[in-house]
Amino acid sequence: MKKKLLLVSLFAAVAMVVTATASFAAPIVIKFSHVVAENTPKGQMANKFKQLVDERLAGKVVVEVFPNSQLFTDKKVLEAMLLGDVQIAAPSLSKFKKYTKSLQIFDLPFLFKNMDAVEKFQQGPYGQKLLRATEKKGLIGLGYLHNGLKQLSANSKLVVPADAARKKFRIMSSDVLAAQFEAVGALPIKKPFSEVFTLLQTKAIDGQENTWSNIYSKKFYEVQPYITESNHGVLDYLVVTSSEFWNGLPADIRTEVKKALDEAIAFGNKVAAEKAISDRQKIIDSGRCEVIELTDAQRQQWVDVMKPVWKKFEDQIGKEYIEAAVKAND
Ligand code: SIN
């Protein structure tokens, strides 16, 4: 009897220790690293995600957001993710070349006529399949986030493709973007986002391509006297995590984190649509640079010169994906 009592007390003591340990367990930390300013679609999405997790998973999960390349550049962030040094990021879809060739589709010039077509393709079967394109390399795509259509900025007027010849343009680390600028006789230079302002300011490069919100929030318009409203390509993001981190989360926490992410992405997409209009207007109102609107005939010249790039990358991307993207414009 005495032995039995002793055993019961021992079990009770162990149970108490286990419970106490569990309730004092350190929260799961999610570091979210990105390269843009906080007043951008991605910056706002990341902050919204943090706010939702703080409200719903207090004490269990902590989100730390690092904007403006404070923690990692986009070149480093995916390597850091695989090492467990960061848990969520949302690099531009142009920056996954090392992990998959198929996401290059989003860099093809003049593929989508507007952001509705981009959304339709991303949410359709081919877009959803592409979310899994990096899984073999240990990265899971959790969703797409919009920024918007890209414009060309330069230190001289770009009206027809010949105006870009021999000019140096900063591009993201994408071979498709390199081919796009080579098609107009320009010199593409791959550089991190964090260096673009200085490169433009010091005239080490002549121009760059980006969305209205990035041009505004990083003040590129203050050092580029001309912006051509070309809408020639899309800059969107893959919200990404490592398989190791994601699959290691307790199932209930993973469900809640994904729910918060989905809501934050929907919020970020709304911000993106608003900023494409409001940041464009702020740039015009600043009087710091001229925004050039192309006639249909001028724009068609850019299309004619750049569109042959599609054929070059068709095998790497998959013809059926490109056809599905074209159909999303209907
Ligand atoms: C970003 O929007 O995350 C950066 C885009 C760029 O590198 O131009």
TrEMBL record:
Pfam families: DctP. Residues 1-25 form the signal peptide. One of its GO terms (cellular component) is outer membrane-bounded periplasmic space. GO terms for biological process: C4-dicarboxylate transport; transmembrane transport. InterPro entries: DctP_fam, TRAP_DctP, TRAP_DctP_sf. Gene3D superfamilies: Bacterial extracellular solute-binding protein, family 7. Keywords: Signal, Transport. PANTHER family: C4-DICARBOXYLATE-BINDING PROTEIN DCTB (PTHR33376:SF7), PTHR33376. Belongs to the bacterial solute-binding protein 7 family. This is C4-dicarboxylate ABC transporter. It comes from Geothermobacter hydrogeniphilus.
